[in-house]
Amino acid sequence: MDEILEILSKDARISAGEIAKLTGKTEDFVKKAVKKYEKNGIIVKYKTIINHDLVNTTGSFVRALIEVNITPQKDVGFDSIAERIYSFPEVTSCYLLSGAYDLLLVVEGENIHTVANFVASKLSPMENVRGTTTHFLLKKYKEDGQIFKKQPGGKRLNISY
């Protein structure tokens, strides 16, 4: 991967000047490269990672991974059904997989009932959906390379024989 892209993928808030220092390129070169990446769709979006456990809100927040088996459609394969599925606002990510399931969805909702209702009333009844398996995320330790809670350093577990 291009070194500018690699740096931005780890910290989107880093300035063009700092990237220039790290790469040995000029700040103007970095700014032009970033604009080109944005224009060409290589850089799609800048993202903030939020630790929802630390946000004081009255409502809850639930995220689930849903594995989906689908029947591919003639001449379009998985793309058409995947597009219908990822168009739902509850679906934040959608991936085509190899293995036992065809699609992996990341679904978010206010609570477990919101996600369950999405699966029962919107996803499962779809014509080409053959089955689903839902996994609710209980705790987030790391996301996009960011560790949420540092483990105490230097302490090892006692081992006895």
The structure class reads alpha+beta
Instruction: Choose one word for the global shape.
Output: extended
Q: What do we call the CATH homologous superfamily of the largest domain?
A: Lrp/AsnC effector binding domain/regulation of amino acid metabolism (RAM) domain
Terminal residue distance: 47 Å
Which whole number gives the mean pLDDT? 90
Low-pLDDT runs of 5+ residues are: none
CATH topology name of the largest domain, in short, is Alpha-Beta Plaits
Extended strand count: 6
- Please list the strands of the largest sheet in the order they lie side by side: 2-3-1-4
| Largest β-sheet summary | 4 strands, antiparallel
Helix/strand order, N-terminal first? HHHEHEEHEEE
Which CATH first-tier class of the largest domain would you pick? Alpha Beta
Helix coverage percent: 25-40%
CATH architectural grouping of the largest domain: 2-Layer Sandwich
Oligomeric composition of the shown chains? single chain
- Gyration radius over CA: 21 Å
DSSP strand content:
15-25%
Question: Which features characterize this protein?
Answer:
four-stranded antiparallel β-sheet, Alpha-Beta Plaits, two-stranded antiparallel ribbon, 161 residues, 5 helices, alpha+beta, extended, 2 domains
Describe this structure in a few short sentences.
The protein is of the alpha+beta class.
Describe the 3D structure.
- The protein is an alpha+beta fold and 161 residues long.
- It has two domains: 3-39; 53-139, Alpha-Beta Plaits, CATH 3.30.70.920.
- The chain is 30% helix and 21% strand.
- It contains five helices and six strands, in the order αααβαββαβββ.
- The chain has helices spanning 3-10, 16-23, 27-39, 79-86, 112-123, and strands at residues 62-70, 91-96, 103-109, 129-136, 142-143, 146-147.
- A four-stranded antiparallel β-sheet has the order 2-3-1-4. Strands 5-6 form a two-stranded antiparallel ribbon.
- Strand 2 (91-96) and strand 3 (103-109) form a beta hairpin.
- The protein is extended and about 55 Å long.
- The mean pLDDT is 90.
